[in-house]
Structure of DUF4190 domain-containing protein:
Amino acid sequence: MTSDPYGGFRPRSPSGLFPSGPPARPTYREPHPVSGAGVALGGAGAAAWLLLFGLLGTSVRTYAWWTIVAGGLAWLVALLLVRHGDRGVGAGIAIVTGGGWSIAAVIVVARWATNGDWPLW
């Protein structure tokens, strides 16, 4: 007769429904996680940037061109930040820049609709 080390009780092998050990794959962390504060700071900075450039415009035409140039520069910075820096700040810059361009587009179209003359040329 052989002695049973488990005292007559045999533990069952786990079914896999409830994990009992470490995961089979390693878990990776994002090097630059997006935070709400970063998005808010990027948005506030982009809003101030677009406001300063928009105030340089003396007419609808110059306001629209200053906004287009400032937005293009802001998007270049956003692309650099998303690639090599804080992704949250880059996302905030991109979101607010898109909104600023939309506002400029609405103003240009409203002027075009009322005067019948395309204001950008």
Notes: The mean pLDDT is 87. Residues 87-115 form the longest helix (29 residues). Residues 36-115 form one domain. The helical segments are 36-54, 60-84, 87-115.
